[in-house]
Specification:
There is one protein chain. The chain has 256 residues and is of the alpha/beta class. The strands form 2 sheets. The protein has a 7-stranded mixed beta sheet with strand order 5-4-3-6-7-9-8.
């Protein structure tokens, strides 16, 4: 019988590895500018976007732009408050919250190095060395302790969820994060577009889930922006309309 050293090596080694330069390089990141109404300062917010990403972090979503405008029109929404953005991607609402003098801002997305570095780049472009903004990875429904630590071990006054409800399989996990991170007198803003009109009911199940958890759901906006993707199927008016809701705990009136 042959010894181990005499046996053939059947490992494939580098046989199936693509040679250097075989795959095209990913598209470069791009810089887009969001212009705020005059006389707001800063007038322009710079958003760095990845060239592409499987988790859709390479788009500046219409929901984020509409909610950014909402914050500027209603600065009391964030002023002197702690703000947490979930699934931030371009992080435009967080940048507007900083411009509108939020007390503390934590910007989160899936714990992927490219996503988080891209958000940090956006922070550095607009508010370099700001002591009130942190960027962190957060897997919905898991390990909220480190996110609480970034706010002095306190829950947050304001949660921002822009264009997240299309991810139906993650509704339960996302709701666990909302319930674990929202202050009892806080507000969670859920802003979205029905990108797939035939799945409107599935999108809205997130709001139904919130109500089943005891949260109050109130519509705050509806705005037609045009569709994000012209060639997608389905009613363009549905795909081009942004909806906004605020979730909060019911107010308990003390006995007189």
């Amino acid at each position: 019988m042959a010894s181990d050293t005499d046996q053939e090596d059947f490992s494939f080694g580098e046989m199936f590895e693509e040679p250097a330069g075989y795959l095209p390089p990913p598209p470069p990141s791009k810089l887009v500018e969001y212009t705020r109404p005059s006389p707001l300062d800063p007038r322009t917010i710079k958003i760095n976007l990845l060239g592409t990403h499987p988790l859709w972090g390479h788009h500046l979503w219409n929901a984020s732009k509409v909610f950014a405008s909402y914050i500027d029109a209603n600065p009391q929404t964030v002023r002197n408050k702690s703000v947490l953005e979930l699934g931030a991607a371009g992080a435009l609402p967080s940048m507007i919250a900083c411009a509108q003098q939020a007390r503390r801002i934590v910007v989160t997305d899936y714990p992927d190095a490219d996503l988080l570095q891209n958000i940090q780049t956006t922070v550095d472009l607009n508010f370099p060395r700001s002591p009130i903004i942190s960027v962190a990875g957060h897997l919905w429904g898991h390990n909220i302790e480190n996110i609480l630590e970034l706010n002095g071990n306190h829950k947050y006054n304001v949660l921002v969820l822009c264009d997240l409800v299309f991810n139906h399989s993650e509704h339960a996990a996302l709701m666990r994060s909302v319930l674990g991170l929202l202050e009892k007198d806080g507000q969670a803003f859920v802003v979205f577009t029905h990108h797939r009109p035939w799945l409107v009911e599935q999108d809205l199940k997130f709001l139904e889930r919130a109500q089943s958890e005891g949260l109050v759901c109130e519509r705050i906006l509806e705005e037609y922006t045009g569709a994000m993707f012209d060639d997608d199927p389905g009613d363009e008016r549905v795909r081009g309309t942004v909806h906004g809701f605020v979730l909060s705990y019911p107010v308990i009136v003390a006995d007189q």
